[in-house]
Amino acid sequence: MPVPRETFLSSVWRDGIFKDKVLFCTGGAGTICSMQVRAFVALGGNACITGRNAEKTEKGAADIASVRPGAKVIGIVADVRDMAAMEAAAERCATELGSLDFAIAGAAGNFLAPMSQLSSNAFRTVMEIDTLGSFHTAKAVMPYLIQSVQKHKNSGKEEPTGTGGRIIFISASFHFRGQPLQAHVMAAKAAVDQISSSVAMEYGPHGITSNVITPGPISGTEGMERLSTADARSVKESKAKIPVGRWGEVKEIADATVFLFSDAGSYVNGVVLVVDGGAWRTTGADMGSTWKYPGFFLSGAVVEGVKGGKKSKL
Ligand code: HXC
């Protein structure tokens, strides 16, 4: 069943901007990553996606390829925890598709568990998938990304052959403030953010850019299925606490990806781009029932006793 274009891509992007370029994405059959890859392929590129489950990965690749006639998308079975497997996957991608110009380190593992129920092996498993896996991905793709940016220079001018040599790591915002039941993920994603910083510093001189995309709560994703309750009232309350008042759409992560890979993102390096409607800034922001977020801001009420504090008009 073809996915309608408006569900994974805004109409603001120009067709063909990734023509003849190749994206390598770990965990590429997942709900968020598959839409990022789909957007890239819709805009002219080809791709390799990796995953541990052969059936899911191959089906994911075929689904994504259906987005554009002539698109090539290869599904490769590989575990990000295995460095040799990642090197072999990157080599196969570059050989079969002719280059490897962009990468997304997207493979992740998550489940809700308090530390009291988290075994050493459970903690290690998520650290190995998210953190070690991101490190392996960066190491495996870097020789090819460097070759790409030598051909498609990151000069700040609009290069005739477009862009190349860019990597995005997918992270989470739990470690910005703290999130119960996510000790393993907070540790793993904080480390992922820092791996991206190291890539930005150490490979930036070669022309590479490295950035993190931090999705907030995105509708219809495996992450939200695992992490949110099915209870409609709490979902409503969770949305109300987000400054823009809603969960995000997969397309909003794909759009951020296209921005960072396109000429529009050429001078963006070493950042954490949080695409969450402002959610992480307000999580837990209620300071008692009087100033409940966001009702207080919508009610017209004032905080009494603020020195010199006259309420200005909206
Ligand atoms: C406590 C758990 C557990 C749970 C597994 N473990 N699930 N402990 N609570 N719910 C423990 C196991 O008991 C075992 O420890 C250890 O973790 C390893 O489990 P395995 O099943 O052997 O591991 P593995 O097959 O490698 O599976 C990895 C996994 C699994 C992370 C546990 O869930 C997985 O493959 N997930 C991949 C897909 C995924 O999670 N996607 C969601 C990404 S969403 P013991 O001690 O028993 O040996 C995401 C978004 C976040 O990251 C941001 C959203 C806003």
TrEMBL record:
One of its GO terms (cellular component) is peroxisome. Its EC number is 1.3.1.124. Coiled coil: none annotated. This is 2,4-dienoyl-CoA reductase [(3E)-enoyl-CoA-producing]. It is an enzyme of class 1 (oxidoreductase). GO terms for biological process: fatty acid catabolic process. Keywords: NADP, Oxidoreductase. The gene is SPS19_2. It catalyses: a (2E,4E)-dienoyl-CoA + NADPH + H(+) = a 4,5-saturated-(3E)-enoyl-CoA + NADP(+); a (2E,4Z)-dienoyl-CoA + NADPH + H(+) = a 4,5-saturated-(3E)-enoyl-CoA + NADP(+). GO terms for molecular function: 2,4-dienoyl-CoA reductase (NADPH) activity.
